[in-house]
Amino acid sequence: xxxxxxxxxxxxxxxxxxxxxxxxxxxxxxxxxxxxxxxxxxxxxxxxxxxxxxxxxxxxxxxxxxxxxxxxxxxxxxxxxxxxxxxxxxxxxxxxxxxxxxxxxxxxxxxxxxxxxxxxxxxxxxxxxxxxxxxxxxxxxxxxxxxxxxxxxxxxxxxxxxxxxxxxxxxxxxxxxxxxxxxxxxxxxxxxxxxxxxxxxxxxxxxx
Length: 208
Fold this sequence. Notes:
The protein is mainly beta. The chain has helices spanning 2-10, 14-18; strands spanning 27-31, 39-43, 52-57, 63-68, 74-79, 82-87, 91-93, 106-110, 115-119, 125-130, 133-139, 142-145, 153-159, 163-174, 183-193, 196-206. Helices cover 7% and strands 50% of the residues. The strands form three sheets. Strands 11-10-9-8-16-15-14-13-12 form a nine-stranded antiparallel beta sheet. Strands 6-5-4-1-7 form a five-stranded antiparallel beta sheet, with no helix packed on it.
């Protein structure tokens, strides 16, 4: 178990290699300042003249912000199966708690094969399921930031090499390989079962 964790914590962050995100993401917001008979356009690029890829309802809540434009006027959000940009002035942040406080549950996904990893509010319970793998719930034994970067990467785990998991959640741009959605958190997950370990890589989002 210790050897597995050592390899996990030393693995380079693919998300961060793709490019740093702006601070304070991911975060949750609600749409404000839009007329009740209108909607908020989600655009392909952070400019009002670019194509519309989706819309958000005038009173939409639980909108996950995964990046900001360099000038701070636009926010990158997800709408349906695509991501796009909306004007920041029409969003109001609904929580000041950073993701690593785990006030909001996380939902993580990946492919090859398709799998799901969920983390409850408070990071007390983790669930894992995959094709041909029965859903499994774990009582999380520990969580920890890295000594040098205590809030950019969070490790957590449960159990042992016969039945447990080790994981590292990192801030960084991530693609799930299934959609055009953007994510601000990368997951490296190792499931331990019957003395064997299987590794998975995917993306996480806030799941209000």
